Amino acid sequence: TMALCLKQVFNKDKTFRPRKKFEPGTQRFELYKKAQASLKSGLDLKAVVQLPPGESINDWIAVHVVDFFNRINLIYGTMSEYCTEKSCPIMSGGLKYEYRWQDDSKYKKPTKLSAPQYMCMLMDWIEMLINNEDIFPTRIGVPFPKQFQQVCTKILTRLFRVFVHVYIHHFDSIINMGAEAHVNTCYKHFYYFIREFSLVDHRELEPLVRMPQGWGS
């Protein structure tokens, strides 16, 4: 799958995976539009992530998980030529943090992978989950499963690791590409969202606590 993943990465639009879209006319599409509108209005990101009055928290989380997946995909897709088997033989965040891959099929035990392999497994795994109607139901009136927020916590925790790796190992490439403001905004938005709903364990956030911008408080 590695060659296939790399082929997808070098598509002209640079996304790592096809974007997942919300169906127009659905509740979630309306919520997505609402979230995007407040994001574009230049409101404080801490306010943007708050649950709008009268909306369902699971719908709000679902919309953001899919949107963050799309956007972090794009960020990693643009970075991927700098993140190779040679440059990043271990999926890590500096010397102190190493991330091993585990899933319920091929890798039953936490396994050391290179960063590009880890990213490939991660994006495949998230794509499979968000397209699974039993976990992310899209039909009106179909309830979310009981473990929905737990699944989202796992997805968001692993997506956070993409930021850790990109910031710690590829920050110079981000600056050279002129993508710093875009990546920083996406990170801030993601960070405020996971903090607002306590979706990622604070220990997972430690690698980026001392961000150069002084966020993380």
Automatic annotation (TrEMBL):
GO molecular function list: kinase activity
Annotated keywords: Kinase, Metal-binding, Transferase, Zinc
Gene3D superfamilies: MOB kinase activator (1.20.140.30)
Annotated residues for binding of Zn(2+): C83, C88, H165, H170
Presence of keyword Flavoprotein: no
Family matches, as SMART domains: Mob1_phocein (SM01388)
Keyword hit for Nuclease: no
Superkingdom classification of source: Eukaryota
Residue stretches in coiled coil: none
Protein name according to UniProt: MOB3C kinase
Organism: Mesembrinibis cayennensis
Annotated gene: Mob3c
